[in-house]
Structures are given as structure tokens and as C-alpha cells.
Amino acid sequence: MNFWYGKHIVIGLGGGIAAYKTLELIRTLRTAGARITPVPTPAALHFVTPLSLQALCGERVRDALFLPEAPDGMDHIQLARQADLVIVAPATADLLARMAQGLADDLLTTLLLARRGPVVVAPAMNPAMWEHPATRRNVTTLQEDGVQFIGPEAGAMACGDEGIGRMAAPVTILEAARRALTPKTLTGRRLLITAGPTREAMDPVRFISNHSSGKMGWEIALAALRAGAEVELVHGPVTLPAPMGACCHAVDSARAMLDAVVPLWLDTTDRPGCDVAILTAAVADFRPTEQRQNKIKKSSGIQESTLELTLNPDILAMLSAWSGVATRSGRQRIVVGFAAETDAPLIHGREKLARKGCDLMAINDVSAAGSGFGTDTNAVTLIGRDGRTEPWPLLPKEQVAERLIQTITNLIHHPPRYGCS
Ligand code: PMT
Q1: 159 Cα: distance to centroid of ligand 1 (angstroms)
Q2: In testing the pocket of ligand 1, which one of 235, 283, 364 has its CB within 8 Å of the most ligand atoms?
Q3: How would residue 415 be classed by pLDDT, with cut points 50, 70 and 90?
Q4: 420 within some domain
Q5: Is residue 233 part of a domain?
Q6: In this structure, which residue's CA is closest to atom 21 in ligand 1?
Q7: Using H for helix, E for strand and C for coil, what is the string for 56-69?
Q8: Separation CA 242–CA 256 (nearest Å)
Q9: Which of 76, 97, 318, 397 is 20 to 30 A off residue 312, Cα-Cα?
């Protein structure tokens, strides 16, 4: 089920030029199945028209505090109570000031005062206004009141100034909104996730690699971040934008990936090792034995050539072996592997789980349609160390990630069970 389907979102718009970007946010949420009630301030209607809001939302624009046709004449109370989430975008300096003081002089500020559930605010203003001590005080007050901020971001402003003040991109606001609605079941936990391919160099211009896009690991990182976890994302060469809030470590080869994960898994003087490791990276099993300093030349008359390979270290096996070593956190740790198979997936997946010693193995048949490398969907069978098997249907990788994070959460809170029914 799409996360946004059936959710009721009130979108409050302040009077700023960034309001045009809010139309894209509304469109994305509507396409995802959310119900949107637009509540512009009078100033916002200088920048977007009621007609464009109504056309995009498919719902009457609420812009008046006193409406005889509203239920009991109290639209602000109904909206404040019914909405799953209130997003204010753009939030101008004036709107933040009125919210911080608890003023209720239009429908939006009145419903915000009556609101008890989550509120996400995306400020947008000139950098000088954002930096002004009055705005800083108002932001602090609102944060203390539980309002969640996203942005503003640095960049060029509509007025020509440069600095911090641009409203966050709609996709960023959407992610912040989703996090505001996700229960924080992994707060205080630190997850190590690997993703993407590795590249094993032959010479300065050639390498051995595979088709991993990083999507599976990225979705797991996002699901963990939404659940409140801290995420260390160690990844090979990919073209995906960094997940908001993740600590990213870019590497190229298997050995570089090992060097990056070891200090995250073992205790350091600064902090204990991670609580959970989920290794989705498609690590090259072998690397060219010799890495030439200069480009390998094609000699005339030679029809065949042989490349000698050396086994790479098995990162999953090493982390699993160390997972029993007590860390300063004193917590039981969990290691999850992913097995990419093309034949007899269950047999090979079980053998890999036993050989590598992890707690869970997510087996995917990478030769099946819609499953494995580069796709947006995946068909996974989860197996536990106790032999229990849980086949999942073909799902968007986002939902595979959510299920896996849910399974791990259950395992953390009920340690004897492996999360497979
Ligand atoms: O990135 P995407 O395009 O979204 O594709 C996702 C995926 C298909 C890459 C992913 O779902 C997946 O299956 N990842 C594991 C790929 C893999 O390397 O499988 P394997 O069966 O060769 O390895 C088993 C496990 O051992 C994996 O967790 C792997 O990270 C780990 N491994 C492998 C070799 C090695 N030297 N060190 C390891 O840690």
C-alpha cells in the first residue's frame, strides 16, 4: 500500500514567492493518493490563485476564518483535529512570528493554534530575515513547541541575494513529512548499511564490477531513517542522491568497503560499534591479482588473454564473526545479508547463511523479472538462522525495505525470535 494513500494533509501556504513550488508538492501528494486541503493566508493568494489550488487539490480552498457553511462555523477546529499532518510551505518570517506568538488572526494560524498533531514547516525568506535575531528566537520557540522544520536551504534567492533562505525542494519536504508520520521505533539505534557495486581495477581505465544500482540499500537506509535510526551508509559508485540525514561513506573496491565498515562495526574510542548491519552491496568476490600502473596494451596477433583473480575478503562473514564480540553498548547485534542468486535460490541462500554466519539472509532471484539489479521492485525470501522461511511477494523496493526494518525492529525488541513466521 502506498504510504500516502488515504492520508489527509492540510497544506498551509504563506505569502512568499516559493508558494509556486508548493503546487508541485500538492500535485505529488495527490498523485500518491493523499487528500489535500489547501489553507492559504490572504498574502499567499498574491502568489498563487484559489483556482490553481482548487484544481490541483480537487477540494475547496479554505481561506476564510468565518464561514457560515463550515461545520458549526468551526472549520479551524475540524481541520486541526482531522488532518493526519499539517505542512506549512512556504512559512514566511511573518507567519513564523505569528505562530510563535500564538496569534490566531486568520484561518491558518487559528487552526495551527488548535492543532495537537504533527506540524512540518518549510521556511522561505530573504537570508537577512532568516538570520535576524527575531526569526532565530521564533524558530527556537516553535522547535520547543514540537514544530518540525525542514530547510531553508542555501542558494540564489528570487530577490538576487545569495544565502540561506530558499524553501526546501518539494521532494525534501515530502520526505520530512513522511518522517513526521513514521513511528520512531529505532530511536537510539545505529545501523550500518552497505549498498551498490564495488569496482575492482585492472589498470587505470578498466575495472570488474556488476549491475547493482544501490536502490535496495538506499530504500533500507530511508526506512531506517524514517524509523528514527542513525544510518551509516557505505556505498560503491552509484548515481543516487544521498538520503537526507544519512552519514555516507563513498568507496570503490571491496577492500575499501571493508576498511570503511570495520571502524563502524567495532567499538572505537569515541563510540560503540553499530547495532545492526544490513549488507545489500554487491561486493565483487574476486579482484584482478595485479593492478597495472599503466593501461594494458593490446599486443598484435594475440587472440586470447587470461586475467588472474584473487579472492576478496568476505565482509559479511567478518562482521558476523565479530557480532558476538561484546561492544560497550552491551546490546545484542544483528547482521543481515542479501544473497543474489540465479538458480535454486533457497538452497544456495541457506548455504550462504550457514557459511557466512549472519542472523538473517534476504534471498533474491536476480534472474526473475522485476527482481534484483537496477529494478524498482524485488522479490525476497527471508530466512532466519533457525531455518524459518518467509517468502515475500514481488514488492516495490521501498516496501521490501519497510518490511525488513519492521522485522529487525521486532528482533531487537523480542530477541529470541528471528522475525520469520
Ligand atoms: O543495488 P540494486 O540495483 O537495488 O540491486 C539490489 C541487489 C540485487 C544488489 C541486492 O538485493 C542484493 O542481492 N545484494 C547482494 C548481492 C551479492 O553480492 O550477493 P552475494 O550472494 O554474492 O553475497 C551474499 C552477501 O555477502 C551479500 O550480503 C554481500 O554484500 C556479502 N559479500 C559478498 C562478497 C564479499 N566479498 N563480501 C561480502 O560481504
Answers
A1: 49
A2: 283
A3: confident
A4: no
A5: yes
A6: 339
A7: HHCCCCCCCCCCCC
A8: 19
A9: 397
